[in-house]
Design goal:
The complex is a heterotrimer of chains A (511), B (309) and C (212). Chain A is built from 16 helices and 22 strands. With 511 residues, chain A is α/β, with parallel strands linked by helices. A six-stranded mixed sheet of chain A has the order 6-7-8-3-9-10, sandwiched between helices. A six-stranded mixed sheet of chain A has the order 17-18-19-14-20-21, with helices on both faces. In chain A, strands 2-1-4-5 form a four-stranded antiparallel sheet, covered by helices on one side. The longest helix of chain A is centred in the first third of the chain and has 14 residues. Chain A is globular and about 75 Å long. Chain A starts with 10 loop residues before the first strand and ends with a strand. The relative contact order of chain A is 0.10. Chain B is an all-alpha fold and 309 residues long. In chain B, helix 2 packs antiparallel against helix 5 and helix 4 packs parallel to helix 6. Chain B is flat, with a radius of gyration of 24 Å. The two termini of chain B are 22 Å apart. The two termini of chain C are 29 Å apart. Classes of the chains: A alpha/beta (511), B mainly alpha (309), C mainly alpha (212).
Amino acid sequence: MDGYEQHSGHIACENLRFCYPDGALAIEKATIAINHHERVALVGRNGSGKSTLMRLLSGLLPCQDGAIFYRGAIVAKKNTPTPLAGMGILFQDPDDHLFCNTVFEDVVFGLFNQGKSAEECRIIAMRQLTAVGLADKADMPPHVLSHGQKKRAALAAVLAMAPELLLLDEPAAGLDPSQIEAIAAILAEYSGTLIVIDHDLPFLARLCCRAVVLADGRIRHDMDMAELMRHPHNLREHGLDFTFRLTADQPPERDKRHRHYQPRHDHSNGLAHQNCQVEVPPIIELQHFSYHYPDGTRALFDINLGVQAGEKVALIGENGAGKSTLAACLLGLRLGNGQYFHHGQEARPQNRRDLWRRVGMVFQDNADQLFCPSCREEVAFGPRWMRLAQDEISRRVAVALAAVGLSGYEERVPLHLSGGERKRLAIASALAMEPELLILDEPTAGLDPAGQEILLRILENIRAAFLLITHDLFFARRLCSRAVLLHHGEIIRDDTSADFFNKIDNSYILS
Amino acid sequence: MNAALSWLESLLVLAGLLSPLMLPMLYFLLYRPKRRDGLASPIDSLDARAARPSFFQRWHCGLKVACLLATCFLFISPRGLAVCLADVAIALLATALSRPSWRRVLARLAAMSGFLTMLLLMLPFSGAVQAGEPTYSLAFLPDSLPLRLSGLGAATLIILKATAVALLMEPMLSTATLADTLHGFRQLGVPASLTQMLLLCHRYIFVFQHEAARMWRGMRLRGFVAGANAASLFAIGNFLGMLFVRSFERTQRVYEAMLCRGFTGEMPRAAAPPMTARDALKALFWLALAVSPLVTEMYFADFMRFLGE
Amino acid sequence: MHISDGVLPISVSVAAYVAAGAGVAVSLRFLRPEDLPKIAVVTSAFFVASLISVPMGPTSVHLLLPGIVGILLGPAAFLSIAVGLILQCFLFQFGGITALGVNALMMGVPALVCAGLFRWLQNGDRRRAMCSGALVGGLGTALAACFLALFLATAGENFFAAAKLALVAHAPVVILEAVVTAAMTGFLFRVKPELLCLPPRSKWRGKGDCSL
């Protein structure tokens, strides 16, 4: 092609432009050059085009305009997905990569396609699985692995092929700090060229030396990682995640006293009830509540938690602490042992099935919650099943959509909305049922800071009580009057927000 | 020759006719799946116990599949009552030898019970009555609808055959990994692309089952109750639409992931262990066992008649 | 409803195996090799969808979905149904292994008919798409019920009453499936029309290729 020079780097693109079939422009005038063994972080807000750029560079998307250079030569344009040789690509969802019936077969798949003998495949596969810590799971089907294990298995399958260029799309998403640490350790040993898309700043800082910032399909900044770290406030708008995370190396001592709003029993072993006088019984109260999984492992133990009307509680804890399980128990999805009071009355197991009318939930993954072809139907779904009158339903829909700032979106298709809009729609669907207690599971996950600001304003205006499950301490501090710390299924701290955030131990928080 | 039955006898006969329905009830009692509707209970992987050593597990897969499949077809060919009972006994022995999950065995039998009960209720009461055929009139049915013993016999034979074949499924399918079992089928002539599709499909059932269960839970938390009314059916239609949209997106991503790991159309497969003399001996032994009831009946008919008297 | 082992004469069983096998072989020959993994993954979604049971009175009814499979997969529907049925038989004993050929014909042929009918009927209007969906969904199940009755009838004249009962018993299922298919078609029309082989809607980011 005339006018395009040869590039000496490993991979490069020049004036790349890409439009989707419906005409939306995804990438415009992208020009990058990446050298061998360089480690680049690709950052930007959701929708800025990072994933699209990665797919273009890998050859999965056809290059419409501009040129891509790989190993010094220009890449021929093709219409079908043609991954370039020597590249390893890891998508966000590890289930897309684990398509064989055992983990071992998945790792061997790529090696077999490289033409290696069966014995070589076996040796390399076991070595790779040992490197990611999954050697004992080699003969298991992928669906029994946890999310973190699946990510490591997918990474093993890609790394086994010894790619010279590795492209990773959000490898740290959905993982807790120890798992992120494991992935970072594996990647630190990789010696080829690395391009990583992620939001997690500490993870990126550890791995990469260069950062390319995208916004609206264009490359805005291309700088050293060190320089990026010096100016974080400029770049918060570009979607970098500044949440601090809790690690549980030395968690503080469990607070031995617990609070019961309604004294129902005495303790004989010296554990005292804290004093709390309330005239109105709390909406929900759990007393000495425990839950075991069907296979016997303990999920929650001796939970004592009460939520008053209008109270805003933050539930904090690392992944695996039991936050989602606690939410499921509060919703009545799981039945545990112990007492569950609803407005002072004990909720027996058969009544707990009706709790959905009072307790609403917004899941972390809103694809699990959106299944109607229009926003209006989506928000009206709950009220319709509550058998309300048609005009009441219409009123609630209008109010709920206005509360989340989506008025005028009635006829739009939920799947076509952006991530932030979908999250707001999910909140609207829950609000339309006018719950007494709203549980929000990681509402800021996947949102860029602009989206988080909008979410903050929406949540500040909600009158219902809510339980905010979150990793984001800034968010929790601004919204909630009370904070509960959960660790390995037990409540360690239950304080007012001010006390909690003032008393946080430095050794306990990763900053 | 029409004999009238009293109310008590008629009710006993009815209970007998409905007896296959005891199986799903037994299953629910023992294993207690949680909900009637939806996708609550997780699906068992077919080869979860494939590593347990047994007579079948150490058998060459191709021979095993060939012999057991031939036995299935043999068992459904026309036979008499005694032979069918012997078939069920052989199948039960084979199942026990394969050290199965008895929960799966019961689940298989329970799955067939609805269809078989329907036949058991219909066949004895339908068809023309032959001259001289013994019939019975039930107390709560009109005389024009007598119970034909031959119909009952036919239904019983069907049930026995279906049970025998269903029992053989566990030894055939659960005693090796799915990949090995399908490789055995491939040696019988099933195309490789079909077995590759089966393996891939089996893998993603679990993924979509999780997704569907989460979506179903999301619907139920907003008050959805499955039922045969328009609102519920429309919600199910939307649910299915969403599930399929996600599945089409995922299939595109899986395909790209396969391409990125060098997929050219052929899935890798380990070389199958060669057939040994021991496998061939097992095959001969099994086939001999499988045809023994038929052979016994043919050549020792007098003996059987003597036993029957 | 799937036919279990032992009901049909062995000749019918074997003949159906041959016919269904031929259908599968033809599908494998004429489909592009790159489509086969895609069909397999989508088939597992159909498999999971068929596990939904709708309580209806004292019992609950499983949806059969031949119409839906036909609408979404077109000519690949027969293969998809065959794969799904094999796994249903292996995992759950829905249908006996000796009756696989019969069951494949029973569900696969109506799916192909539905595929052709739907493509022919709909023209890009939402209401028409939903009506065609309803018609096709109901027709698919009705045809499957007719096939079931026909196969049962081959077992002998004693089975005629059972065949008639099977036909009548599927009548409510026909209506259920018609409604569900209409709802699904309406959903897909608005959300991702490419799956129905219509041009993509303006704001949708995705591939415009209708065939897999």
